[in-house]
């Protein structure tokens, strides 16, 4: 991985001591004490993390992630606000004669609107298990869901048309995402399971303690899921005597996914591909135990345009499994909500026995098409919601002159957190994003997202064992850190990491393993004050 060469922080102090020993003395003939020289990273005092797009009005606002980029033109601002309304829109079961533009929900889905998984454009709330309960059933208030797939006979090394470009293998009669909610008659047994989707999903937590050398203890929790009552075998569980459901077979892989913040996405897509690939070090050639890898993924836009090799660099999603904001946004519109659109015109459960039965039972009133034969979401609706996600402003940093924040920046560098959380990039000055000419507001911006956009092995503690294109079951894309200090200002119930398990940034750090294990070990070796300083720096971002 290409990184700036750094001298250890004690090196500058040693040079100072050596120079003073060569000459220079006080009037009394004795040497004066030499103060160590402390060097801070170049980003220590940076405030405008999103370049010219940065908003400076988000410091203590519950809507701190919901500000348009401040450098949009008047026409762009109008389109952004239109997309904002679309992002908030709640869809209904078809037909909806009064608001046909909002019908088409499901028939199975995870949520009815974008905001439920990206609350106030940030993270969703972490489900809470009451003290009197052992688990909680996911429902309409939960923004977490399960990705599902079949285990492959062997790892997929290179994507080709013959292996579907290493895409996850869909579970027969289910797909690659589990939809725990449904419209009233989604299932054939709807009288007993009204508003239930493909299956019921229950969440519980396993807990263990981490003890620092100074005796301080931190309790960590890990979510555990149980899937029951699948539509193809109602009432069945993994513990049933004879498991028949396709979903409950031993070779079905499942992994939690939380909704992500949606600000700054256009800037991330505008990072030149070459700048991201410059940090790839798959074989760890520099022996720093960090080996970032690129994920190359199927690109629905290229496929729709007839590209013979519809593959692009993965940039978004927890495993970098989507190439653009457009594919991510419209894929979620069709997948999470069940709303077909020009990029994804077919229902996500098309061809399954659940969908065939639903159409027959309900008289084909919800086929995934409008009365005009077009997808449920128009091109205008889709374009606006994509532009909205591309042009949400990055919030400015706070408290950059605070001594603890500055020391935290130094520790961030000292612990090599920047080995994966690359501080800065410059966005491209021309070209398109998502197959469409990009806004001038995104061009040529010096940004500080603190991510390398690459995959890293994060250890068994965070692993879900589920490959996604070239990402293996231990690998995750480095999350951008910009705005992370406002996460719980925007949503006090939000958690961190891919499944919301970490209630604090300290907990998130302690879960880092694999390539980040050395940094975690070094963090645990810090004093309590130093640990607080590092967290203070993160909270300033």
UniProtKB/TrEMBL annotation:
The keyword Nucleotide-binding does not apply. Residues 1-23 form the signal peptide. Pfam families: DHOR (PF06537). PROSITE patterns: CYTC, PROKAR_LIPOPROTEIN. Keywords: Heme, Iron, Metal-binding, Signal. GO terms for molecular function: cytochrome-c peroxidase activity; electron transfer activity; heme binding; metal ion binding. Residues 403-541 form the Cytochrome c domain. PANTHER family: CYTOCHROME C DOMAIN-CONTAINING PROTEIN (PTHR30600:SF4), CYTOCHROME C PEROXIDASE-RELATED (PTHR30600). This is C-type cytochrome. It comes from Shewanella algicola. The lineage of its organism: Bacteria, Pseudomonadati, Pseudomonadota, Gammaproteobacteria, Alteromonadales.
């Amino acid at each position: 991985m290409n990184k700036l060469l750094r001298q250890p922080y004690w090196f500058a102090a040693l040079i100072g001591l050596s120079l003073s020993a060569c000459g220079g003395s006080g009037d009394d003939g004795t040497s004066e004490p030499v103060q160590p020289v402390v060097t801070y990273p170049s980003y220590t005092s940076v405030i405008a993390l999103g370049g010219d797009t940065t908003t400076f009005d988000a410091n203590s606002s519950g809507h701190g992630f919901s500000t348009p980029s401040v450098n949009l033109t008047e026409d762009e601002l109008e389109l952004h606000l239109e997309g904002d309304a679309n992002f908030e829109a709640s869809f209904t079961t078809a037909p909806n004669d009064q608001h046909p533009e909002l019908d088409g929900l499901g028939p199975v889905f995870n949520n009815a609107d974008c905001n439920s998984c990206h609350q106030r454009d940030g993270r969703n709330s972490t489900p809470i298990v009451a003290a009197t309960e052992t688990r909680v059933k996911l429902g309409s208030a939960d923004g977490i869901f399960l990705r599902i797939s079949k285990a492959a006979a062997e790892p997929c090394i290179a994507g080709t048309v013959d292996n579907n470009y290493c895409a996850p293998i869909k579970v027969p009669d289910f797909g690659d995402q589990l939809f725990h909610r449904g419209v009233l008659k989604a299932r054939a047994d709807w009288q007993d399971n009204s508003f239930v989707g493909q299956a019921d999903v229950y969440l519980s937590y396993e807990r263990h303690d981490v003890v620092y050398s100074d005796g301080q203890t931190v309790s960590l929790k890990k979510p555990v899921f149980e899937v029951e009552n699948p539509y193809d075998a109602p009432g069945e569980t993994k513990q049933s005597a004879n498991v028949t459901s396709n979903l409950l077979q031993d070779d079905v892989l499942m992994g939690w996914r939380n909704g992500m913040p949606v600000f700054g996405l256009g800037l991330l897509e505008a990072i030149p591909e070459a700048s991201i690939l410059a940090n790839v070090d798959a074989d760890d050639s520099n022996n720093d135990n960090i080996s970032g890898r690129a994920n190359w993924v199927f690109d629905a836009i290229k496929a729709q345009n007839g590209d013979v090799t519809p593959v692009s660099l993965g940039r978004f999603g927890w495993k970098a499994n989507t190439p653009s904001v457009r594919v991510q946004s419209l894929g979620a519109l069709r997948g999470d909500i069940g709303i077909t659109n020009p990029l994804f015109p077919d229902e996500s459960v098309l061809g399954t026995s659940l969908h065939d039965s639903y159409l027959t039972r309900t008289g084909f009133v919800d086929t995934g098409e409008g009365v005009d034969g077009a997808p449920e979401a128009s091109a205008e609706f889709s374009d606006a919601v994509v532009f909205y996600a591309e042009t949400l402003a990055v919030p400015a940093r706070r408290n950059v002159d605070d001594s603890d924040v500055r020391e935290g920046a130094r520790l961030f560098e000292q612990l090599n957190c920047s080995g994966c959380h690359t501080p800065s990039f410059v966005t491209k000055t021309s070209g398109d994003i998502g197959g469409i000419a990009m806004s001038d507001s995104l061009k040529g911006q010096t940004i500080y997202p603190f991510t390398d956009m690459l995959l890293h092995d994060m250890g068994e503690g965070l692993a879900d064992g589920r490959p996604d294109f070239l990402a293996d079951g231990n690998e995750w894309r480095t999350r951008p850190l910009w705005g992370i200090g406002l996460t719980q200002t925007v949503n006090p119930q939000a958690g961190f990491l891919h499944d919301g398990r970490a209630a604090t940034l300290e907990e998130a750090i302690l879960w880092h393993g694999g390539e980040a294990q050395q940094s975690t070990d070094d963090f645990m070796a810090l004093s309590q004050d130093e640990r607080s300083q590092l967290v203070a720096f993160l909270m300033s971002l």
